[in-house]
Design a protein that fits this description.
With about 70 residues, the chain is mainly alpha-helical. It is built from 4 helices and no strands. The chain has a domain of about 40 residues.
């Protein structure tokens, strides 16, 4: 799911979704609920630790080049 699609489904600003993805902002409980609803999951799944050996690095900020 793209940031744009997630932001639209969760009724949050796309730029805010980007800040969340990069770890630049911390979501409120209300925002977590909106994101969980948009992703059809429980809020607890968003807070669950990752299994051992799995790490996720945020994407670089900015738009992809159209080349």
């Amino acid at each position: 799911i793209s940031q744009d699609d997630l932001a639209l489904a969760a009724n949050i600003e796309r730029s805010y979704a980007g800040h969340l993805e990069r770890g630049g902002k911390n979501p409120t409980v209300i925002t977590l609920e909106k994101l969980a609803t948009a992703l059809s999951c429980d809020v607890s799944e968003l807070l669950a630790p990752l299994p051992d050996g799995i790490s996720i690095k945020p994407l670089k900020s900015g738009r992809r080049s159209q080349a």
